[in-house]
Structure formats: C-alpha cells, structure tokens
What we know:
With 553 residues, the protein is mainly β. The chain contains two helices and 30 strands.
Amino acid sequence: MSQKVAFWAVLSLCYTQVCAQIDDDIVITKDRKIELPPANRVFEKIPPVKTKPEDRQMKYAFFDRKPKGIEEVKFNPTVVAPDGGKKKEEEDKYNNYISLGAGNFGRIFGEVYINPAQDRKMIFGVHALHNSTSRGPIDDKNSANMYDKAELSGKYLADKFQINSGFSYNRDQYYFYGYKRPRAEFDRKDIRQILNTVNFNVGFENIAPNPRVDYSLKTNIRSLKDNYAAQETDWTTTFNAYFPIIDEKFVAVIDADANMAQRSDGEVDKRNLFRVEPSFKLNLNSFSASIGYKAVNEFDEVKKINRTTGYPTVVITYKLPNLIYIFAGYGGDIVRNTLGSFLAENPFLMPKTKLLNTEKLQEYHIGGKGDIGSGFSFNFKGSMGYYKNLYYFNNYAPKVNEIKADTAKFAVLYDSLKTQFVNVSAQLNYQPAQIWRTYLRTDINHYQRRSYEKPFHRPLVTVKWGNTFIVSDRLIANLDVAYIGKTFAKNPTTNELVTNKAIIDMNAEFDYLFGKQFTAFVKLNNILGKKYERYLYYPQQGLNFLVGVNFSF
C-alpha cells in the first residue's frame, strides 16, 4: 500500500507544479508501434512550405521514450507559410529548394533538396546538407565542428501496397574540447573525432482500404565507424500484423522485431535482441482494451548473456463523450543500447565504451489526452516502475593502475541494482487563431539513487515553450524557450560532486517571403548568450546566428 500511496502523492505534487512541462507523449491510434524520430544535431531544413489553412493545426504526440537524458537544446522550428488566400488549383508547386547561409563562429550552411518530376506512383528525392563552424565556444579551432549528410529516398505507391526505401551517408567531425586547462601543446588530430554512418532502409506496407489483414515489414541496416577504431553494424527488422477476428471490435495483433548488432572496438562482440508480442485488442465504442504478452530474447557473445524474459502488457482506454481519452496500463521491456544510440545522445564518449541493455522490469502508467475546446488540447501521462542497468554519463575516472582521468571523454555508468523511477509528462497546446499557435510541455523525472549519489547528467526537470507567429503573408516568426534543470556530475580528478547550473535557452527565427520562390531567413540561437554546460567541461556556444536565403524551384 505504501508504494501506491507514494506513487499517487508524487503524481499529485508534480502535476500542481507542471502545467508547463513535458517531453514525451502517447498517441491513441490503431496501436501501431510508436517510433522515436532520429535526433538532429544541427539546423533542419527551412523550405517555405505552403499549406491550406485547415492543415495548419498543430499536432502533438507523446512518445513512450527509452530511459535517456535529453539532448542538447536545439532550435528546430516548423516553418509554415501562409497560402495568401489562393485556391489550391492556383498554387504553384515547387518541389526543389536550395538554402545557403552563414553566421558567426565561422559558420557555413548549405542545403539542397531535389525532387525530380514524378508521377503518382513513384516519388524520388535527393537531399544534401553541410553545416560547419571554424571556431567554437573555447580554444578557437579546438571546439569547431562539421556535419555533412547525403541522402537518397524513394517511394513506390501501388493500389494496395507501398514500398519505401532510402540510403544515406553522414559524416560528423568534432573535437574533444573538454580537456583540463591550461594544457601543453598537442596535435589537434589527437582530440578529433569523426563519425561515418551509412544507413540503408526498405519497407513494405499494406495501404489497401479496409483490408482483411493489415501488415507492414521494415528493415534498416546501419554501419558506424569512428576515429578510434570502433565499428558497429546494426541490422533491425520490424513486422506488424493485424487480424480482425470479429469485425473491427476484436482484433489479433502481432508485433515483432529482430535486432542484430556487431561491435568491434577491440574484441568483436555480437549483440542480438529478438522480441515478439502477440496481443488481443477489444474495441467497444467508448471502451477499449489491449492484453498481450511480450517475449524478449537477449544475447551478448562477450558477456555470455543468453536469456529470454516475458512481460505481460495491459492497456485500458475509456473515451468520454467530449472526445477526451483516459488510459491506464502495465508493461515491461528490454531497451536496446548501442554504440550508435549512445553517440547520438552524448558524442563525447571514450573508446571501448561498455554496452549493456536497460531492462524496464515493470511500469504502471495512467494518462489522458484530448481537445478541451476554444483552441486548447492536452496530453498527460504519469508512470512509475523499475529499471535495471539504468545508465548515466560521467567524465572518465581512472581505474586501478591507470595513470590519470580524462575530463574530455565520458564513460557510461550502469546501475546494476533495481532502480525505481517516477515520470510525469504534460503538454498543453493552444491555437487561438491562424496567426499564432503555441505549446508548453514538461517532463519531470525522479530516480531512486542506488549505486551512485546522483543520476549523473540526467536532468530531473525539462520545459519547452514553442511559438509560431504568422505576422503577415510574407513574414513568419518562431520563438522557443527551453529550460533544463540542474544536473550532477562527479569530478574525475578530485572525486567531488559537481552541480551543473540549470539552463535557460532562448531561440528565434524569422522568415521573410520575397515572392513565390525566394525566402530570406535569420536564426538566433542562445539569445541570452550563456555558455551553459549540458555536459561537464563542455560549454556551449554563446549567442550565435545564421543568416541565409532559400530558393525554391
């Protein structure tokens, strides 16, 4: 009983503090598998996309996220240009664009998207991006960076199925500039990191209207190499199928995925994870339920792991007459951790990073979502459960017989004990008129401390407030503010606990449409100019800007 009382007490306390906080969501849909979008380290595309007024409604979704710290604050606004009152048939469509820009810190930005002439069945695109700085926040060139991407994508649409495919190459170059200062002269090559990533994916999906059996099959192969002899090949395949038993009211579902990875950073390590979850879903108008059983097999050749674990899953949903949904559920899982996933979260990892999966032993959750009228909509989720091998990042501390610590590189620390967690997520969306839309979201986390004094580099509170203003037919403005609560780390040299100050990051973007095809843009990042440290000894750039033009054709 004490555990349940504590759970509800924490949820009530957090909710009163939070009508402004969140990062994750849940969407009540046909229960297809929810996937996280890939992390983006740099500026996204800025094409002047034309939409109809009815398409401007902001859509939000909560994701049942893997246990991880949030990424560096990045400004990735969605720019929506007004249609100028034109009818759809009068609009000129431009499928291609080129963006060029420059900024302080020696920033050079370029992007191109080419979408050749295509028919209704075949869609094909080429995308390339370059974003680099010649200087960084400290030590001039020693904290510079460069990100390049080249991508091919295509889609074939038939009457009853579609095939998606893509191929991409990413090259990320940056430096381990978190070293102790002052430092003797050294070769910059000794602190340079280069990540070369190749991805290939293909998917086959049923799109027939009202199919008797619905299904999708997707596979992705990723090859990653770094500048320190590490290489990881990761092959992931997912399969989803839906079998109506009694019309649409009673459905059988099969979700399965196969994940095979091989990592060589010294000793070659084969790490596989196979998952299958059969379930039954009942839909009775206002009430729906899903009951299933998830079987997961985990294999690690080097660590001599070969085990199969089962997790029952239950989700119950009730729809109120005003289209507000409330839900509750129980489940568990094994979360894959790979070298690629860790580097996407923290790129400053030391060589030969230890890889272990994180097990979500159990999770109880409740929540709700819906439209509450007058332009307001909301999402809310509260959960409590237990992790095993929950991971943290901390600057590398020497082991016995090793010479010194390395403040510039991070080790992954795992809590092998059973760690209780509580998470409260909430998001409020408001669109009072076509000219303004806004959202406020928050994520509050609590981790029971077992093996370590603090949850190193995991923020306990994150908040983001985003706004889009359509000032006129030609001017669109975006403003967002992010707050990341203080985090903790341990000084690897003195072994003392260190507190990283809370972060407030404000960003803005302005797009001015000179005509149908030509747009000028200005991006202002970190307007407050604070060289905050999301990770210890790694100050971020102060006020930085990007000025450029976009040409559509």
